[in-house]
TrEMBL record:
Protein's name in the database: PilZ domain-containing protein
Pfam families documented for this protein: PilZ
Lineage: Bacteria, Pseudomonadati, Pseudomonadota, Alphaproteobacteria, Sphingomonadales
InterPro entries (alphabetical): PilZ_domain (IPR009875)
All copies of domain PilZ, residue ranges: 3-83
Molecular function, one GO term: cyclic-di-GMP binding
Length: 86
């Protein structure tokens, strides 16, 4: 089951931006609109209450991006995010 959650994302030295991680799973997520995303740069993610996460962009289509975590989320961490998302 995927979940949607608001967080902050950043690529390179760009400022942190609010984004909605859609269809979040232990392995990755989608962001519906991330303008000027560059597939060759890692993405940093700040979810409140968690350590900084890293992901790589697997695809970009019409401003949307599909991402894979560098290391899959531990199942207990994913379950915590699902509970916190409501």
């Amino acid at each position: 089951m995927g979940v949607d959650i608001r967080c902050e994302v950043r690529q390179g030295t760009r400022p942190w931006r609010i984004a909605l991680l859609e269809d979040l799973s232990p392995g990755g997520f989608r962001i519906g609109c991330l303008l000027q995303a560059r597939q060759e740069l890692p993405l940093r993610i700040r979810i409140p209450g968690l350590q900084l996460l890293s992901a790589r962009i697997c695809w970009i289509r019409n401003g949307a991006v599909g991402c894979e975590f560098d290391a899959p989320l531990h199942i207990a961490v994913f379950e915590h995010i699902v509970r916190a998302a409501g």
